[in-house]
């Protein structure tokens, strides 16, 4: 009886699995011209429990498997609802549980704290195309941290990241005489070598006036943390027009 029920359910669910489509909400997806697909930052984080446990808690019936950058696999249904089949309403509690345990398996990385912040207003590169390989690449990491922090989970780093990963494995290198050139170049965050890392991050010292034109953007604090006020890629006029108060531009 039960197995008949199951095979009926499977039979009915076939059309849905063939036309794989992201159900629930569209967080961490983008329209690629044909359909909604996951962004790279949808799956850029790690699950906080093992991947194997997440796959048991959040099984997928989609023929495409689990969410991956650029695919349109249906989000495992338990990631966002208590219902048994889609379309189903989003249950905030289910989503919250998925976010804290299995954000990667559910394709929700982009809305976890480390991935959920504004990027620079005028980033030097297209934040939406950044891949996981770039997030780990010493040549890219420091640029991404100031311009596209949300792409690599750098939101709470104030624009200051180590260029290479794993500096913190051995913090004694920060003091080692023969390692100074290396750590200045590669372990800026771990060894405290980012410019003006004391005080308010990324805000230059005051100018000659004592009042400033009001900020026109409400995101200035976050942008300042990501280097907006000091990044010479922006003109002084641009900084002033958005964040005169936060950046203290007369
Ligand atoms: C993201 O999820 C929230 C809550 O489920 C929803 O209100 C919002 O519309 C979603 N955003 C997108 C782009 O789907
Ligand atoms: C959109 O993504 C789907 C699934 O990965 C792919 O088959 C399709 O070719 C993509 N469309 C464009 C215009 O890139």
TrEMBL record:
Origin superkingdom: Eukaryota
Keyword tags: Disulfide bond, Signal
Domain (ShKT): residue spans on this chain: 109-155, 160-194, 209-250
InterPro entries the record matches: ShKT_dom
SS bond partners: 160-194
Signal peptide from the UniProt entry: 1-20
PANTHER family according to UniProt: SHKT DOMAIN-CONTAINING PROTEIN (PTHR21724:SF0)
Name recorded for this polypeptide: ShKT domain-containing protein
Protein species of origin: Caenorhabditis briggsae
């Amino acid at each position: 009886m039960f197995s008949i029920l199951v095979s009926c359910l499977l039979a009915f669910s076939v059309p849905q699995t063939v036309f794989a489509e992201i159900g629930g909400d569209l967080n961490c997806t983008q329209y690629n011209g044909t359909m909604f697909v996951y962004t790279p930052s949808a799956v850029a984080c790690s699950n906080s429990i093992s991947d194997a446990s997440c796959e048991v808690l959040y099984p997928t019936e989609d023929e495409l498997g689990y969410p991956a950058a650029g695919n349109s696999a249906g989000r495992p249904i338990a990631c966002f609802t208590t219902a048994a089949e889609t379309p189903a309403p989003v249950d905030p509690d289910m989503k919250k549980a998925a976010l804290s345990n299995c954000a990667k398996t559910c394709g929700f990385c982009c809305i976890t704290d480390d991935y959920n912040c504004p990027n620079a207003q005028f980033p030097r590169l297209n934040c939406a195309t950044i891949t996981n390989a770039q997030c780990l690449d010493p040549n890219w990491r420091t640029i991404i941290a100031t311009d596209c922090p949300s792409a690599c989970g750098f939101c709470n780093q104030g624009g200051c990241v180590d260029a290479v990963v794993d500096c913190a494995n051995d913090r004694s290198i920060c003091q080692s005489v023969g390692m100074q050139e290396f750590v200045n170049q590669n372990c800026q965050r771990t060894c405290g070598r980012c410019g003006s890392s004391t005080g308010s991050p990324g805000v230059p010292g005051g100018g000659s006036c004592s009042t400033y034109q009001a900020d026109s953007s409400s995101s200035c604090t976050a942008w300042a943390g990501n280097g907006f006020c000091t990044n010479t890629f922006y003109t002084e006029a641009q900084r002033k027009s958005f964040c005169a108060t936060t950046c203290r531009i007369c």
